[in-house]
């Protein structure tokens, strides 16, 4: 029964999409672009979504932003809605590298191109193109700086993001590719906080009860870095424990300027979003040979060079 329901939806979507497409070609109605993002509970993704929508509008397309709230089932609803409503392309920030594959393939079956932004899906035969930050290389740079600031020794903690997101592990692997070569650096805890500020604060509070003598904390994103810093302030340890983030969010850039946070990896969500919207525009005009993965460089921002950067980008 479940299979028949799914098959019916696919057939219905194909018929509806084809009809909408033919209607637009006759009436010259503007094409529609859906922006589906993992969550709007993180300022970084708000910038990503809004920039994608603004760029698509500049190019002459109607847009709508859908918030998946880090829920793959809700993401599926958004894809079904976008397809049945006649959207012509989807600019997509996945909730899960594996769990989101089926949604991208759903769109592909009805010839709706999907351009992944920042996060990827674990296949090369679904999305039209994936525009991704080079998280691994960015965290190699942070790892080197981490080692330098901790003088190659001491206890430290790693706060991971969502375990189903490849960025979580790319960042962790990049960091450890450097740090693990120094035997006097001891990781006493590695826990997930789901890229969430409040969860990171709670996780850090618990870790401090068992490990009050740590010297540094590496966080998989800036929201978690701010949560960790809040926990350190509450424990009276903000001046004793160094915090390193990743993203280039406004509050962390400001905190680096104020000498609270040590460093972050500056991603460029505006560049990623504009590239995805530009790719959709090129697709509408007939281009089909897109690179499957388009890397976007990450730059380390610290207290020495922070003057060269602003939130989510460079000056």
UniProtKB/TrEMBL annotation:
Protein name, as recorded: D-ribose ABC transporter substrate-binding protein
Species name: Polaribacter reichenbachii
Superkingdom of origin: Bacteria
Example of a GO MF term: carbohydrate binding
PANTHER family (UniProt xref): D-ALLOSE-BINDING PERIPLASMIC PROTEIN-RELATED
InterPro entries recorded: Peripla_BP_I, SBP_2_dom
Predominant location category: other
Cellular compartments per GO CC: cell envelope
PROSITE patterns in the record: PROKAR_LIPOPROTEIN (PS51257)
Alphabetical keyword list: Signal
Recorded family membership: Belongs to the bacterial solute-binding protein 2 family.
Domain Periplasmic binding protein, residue spans: 33-287
